[in-house]
Design a protein that fits this description.
This protein folds into two domains: 211 residues, Rhopdopsin 7-helix transmembrane proteins (Up-down Bundle), CATH 1.20.1070; 183 residues, Hypothetical protein af1432, CATH 1.10.3210. The chain contains 17 helices and two strands. The protein starts with a helix and ends in a 9-residue tail after the last helix. The protein is mainly α and 425 residues long. Strand 1 and strand 2 form a beta hairpin. The longest helix is centred in the middle third of the chain and has 53 residues.
Length: 425
């Protein structure tokens, strides 16, 4: 009796804990919470009713209230399978639960008058000659639960046969001792199964949410890439001198970054993620030109000193434009790298660049890589104020400015792999 009392007590506490979790869990809709609460409360009712009948404190005067309680128990227990499946999200379970409960209630009520399924006398509770009627209703409920689990697994595209099998094993393990050894642990097994279904459902939901989140992140990333491409193209189309510049420089940036990492240069910083962002954001390096007047941007010739000073504004303006456009739709790392490229790709290793005169490794790595790619492409491309020069001459020019304009470590990588930077025919 002590063991049985403890078992029922633990079952009630388990269902109470699960009910409290449902009430406080924000991941469920109202309808889902109602289904789970009905499931757990029904288990508590059935376990409590069975305990009241079999606890050993029977008195003949309790026969009528215990009969009513047992009718409720025998009517509610077979709908547990329907309640489980309702909690797991299949539709139209309300109607099935109401119909099945009503049928059970009518059958149990009528049978109680004649003692067909159970009855009480001076010695206590007894099974009737037609107790198998209740057993059939209960077995049908278990089969409904198993089929429902399979359907739920298909619905969520994550069919978990281990969970389905374990639920079945637990339920059978709870039924056999009652039928063979007369140990009343059925509702403990049901409570465990209900908890397992609860965990199973949460796992399915979390996997579905994770898949949906990945899809949304991919869409957001694609939207950012399209926005970057569009803005960069807008600027390039205004600057009639730089057709194809953003595509070529993005390639040079990617190539130089990967080669530098392979050669052990800044390998700790040049992670796959960093290189991916760098290549994606490289087209934004001249976004600040959007604030430069067309009369200067499209001038067919060299700038006067005054025009050059005005043109230099595009570097500092680039970072501001990027933060204004992308702030709130991407993370800080994304913003930081994009801003660094746009703002500092005209800084010089010796501190003579602009807009802030940064020196050495105070210049962000992304901007130092961009600087080499930008100048190299400008040298080998035709401009309205100059002819294109051969790649070998461009290599020599960049070598000449190693340690003054450019990061010497990156220049060495660049010159050690000249073939990788030759224009594609």
């Amino acid at each position: 009796m002590d063991f049985y009392s403890c078992l029922v007590g633990l079952t009630e506490l388990m269902m109470l804990a699960m009910s409290l979790h449902v009430l406080t869990y924000s991941g469920f809709k109202k309808e889902q919470k109602i289904w789970y609460l009905l499931t757990f409360i029904c288990v508590m009712l059935c376990a409590g009713a069975e305990f009241a009948v079999h606890c050993g404190y029977y008195n003949e005067s309790f026969a009528i209230p215990l009969t009513i309680l047992t009718v409720l128990q025998f009517s509610a227990a077979p709908i547990l399978g329907v309640l489980f499946i309702g909690a797991l999200g299949l539709r139209n379970q309300t109607k099935i639960a109401v119909i099945y409960f009503s049928i059970n209630l009518v059958v149990e009520t009528v049978a109680a008058f004649f003692g067909w399924i159970f009855y009480f006398d001076e010695s206590g509770y007894h099974r009737g000659n037609y107790f198998l009627i209740y057993g059939a209703f209960y077995l049908l409920s278990l089969l409904y639960l198993i089929v429902g689990l399979v359907l739920v697994g298909k619905k969520f595209r994550h069919r978990d046969m281990w969970t389905i099998g374990m639920t079945l094993i637990i339920l059978i393990a709870g039924i056999l001792p009652m039928t063979i050894l007369k140990l009343n642990i059925t509702y403990t097994a049901i409570a465990m199964s209900a908890s397992l279904c609860y965990i199973y459902y949460n796992d399915l939901i979390q996997q579905d949410i994770k898949t949906e989140l990945v899809t949304k992140q991919k869409k957001m990333s694609d939207m950012q890439d399209h926005m970057i491409s569009g803005l960069a193209s807008l600027v390039e189309n205004r600057d009639l001198d730089t057709g194809g510049h953003i595509t070529r420089t993005a390639y040079y940036v990617k190539t130089l970054s990967e080669l530098a990492r392979a050669d052990g240069v800044y390998a700790d910083q040049l992670t796959d993620h960093f290189i991916t962002l760098l290549c994606t954001l490289a087209p934004m390096h001249d976004i600040g030109k959007i604030v430069i007047p067309d009369v200067i941007l499209q001038k067919p010739g060299r700038f006067t000193p005054e025009e050059y000073e005005q043109m230099k504004v595009h570097a500092s303006a680039g970072g501001s434009v990027i933060r204004q456009v992308l702030n709130g739709i991407t993370d800080e790392e994304y913003l930081s790298i994009a801003s660094d490229i746009a703002t500092y790709h005209h800084e010089w290793w010796n501190g003579c660049g602009y807009p802030k005169g940064l020196k050495g490794e105070r210049i962000p790595l992304a901007a130092r890589i961009m600087a080499i790619a930008d100048v190299y492409d400008a040298l080998i491309s035709e401009r309205c104020y100059k002819d294109a020069i051969p790649p070998e001459e461009a290599f020599d020019a960049i070598k000449l400015e190693s340690g003054t304009h450019f990061d010497p470590a990156l220049v060495k990588v660049f010159l050690d792999h000249k073939d990788a930077f030759l224009p594609k025919q």
